[in-house]
């Protein structure tokens, strides 16, 4: 059972590294624009830092649990779910340059909702569309942050 917890710790450690890299790359996009406006790198920076902090906290918790666990039962389905979501996140990040942030994000939310959470297709699509519209409204319309549009040019990339 300890090996399952070590696997969970490895996922959190990998997610910490990925999110720190995401935050570091965001500086290349520009955190602010002229006049002090929020730039296109602001979202990846904030997301990367927040994800790194949360992942580091969960990594710490997982390592402590690994040290305390001797014969406790660990649910293998939970570990499998964690790896699945991590894989889907990686695929979504790889799709951003091709499809744009909003489309990749919408597909990620749909995939997690439909395949991980096992929701029916129509409600999962509704959740994905609603989440994508909220992200668009907050970042593009309200904060005027141009999101990467990818080859499709979707998302307010400026």
TrEMBL record:
Transmembrane segments annotated in the record for this chain: 42-61, 82-115, 121-145
Keyword list, A-Z: Membrane, Transmembrane, Transmembrane helix
Residue intervals of the DUF1468 domain: 14-148
Pfam families recorded: TctB (PF07331)
Protein name: Tripartite tricarboxylate transporter TctB family protein
Keyword presence, Transmembrane: yes
InterPro entries documented for this protein: DUF1468
Keyword Glycoprotein: no
């Amino acid at each position: 059972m300890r090996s399952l917890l070590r696997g969970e710790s490895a996922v959190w450690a990998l997610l910490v590294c990925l999110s720190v890299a995401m935050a570091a790359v965001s500086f290349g996009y520009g955190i602010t624009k002229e006049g002090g406006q929020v730039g296109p790198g602001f979202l990846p920076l904030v997301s990367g830092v927040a994800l790194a902090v949360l992942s580091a906290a969960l990594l710490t918790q997982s390592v402590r649990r690994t040290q305390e666990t001797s014969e406790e039962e660990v649910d293998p389905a939970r570990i499998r779910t964690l790896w699945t979501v991590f894989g889907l996140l990686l695929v979504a990040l790889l799709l951003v340059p091709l499809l744009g942030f909003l489309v990749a994000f919408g597909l990620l939310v749909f995939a997690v909702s439909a395949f991980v959470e096992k929701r029916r297709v129509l409600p999962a699509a509704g959740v994905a569309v609603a989440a994508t519209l909220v992200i668009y409204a907050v970042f593009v319309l309200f904060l005027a942050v141009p999101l990467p549009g990818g080859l499709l040019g979707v998302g307010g990339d400026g």
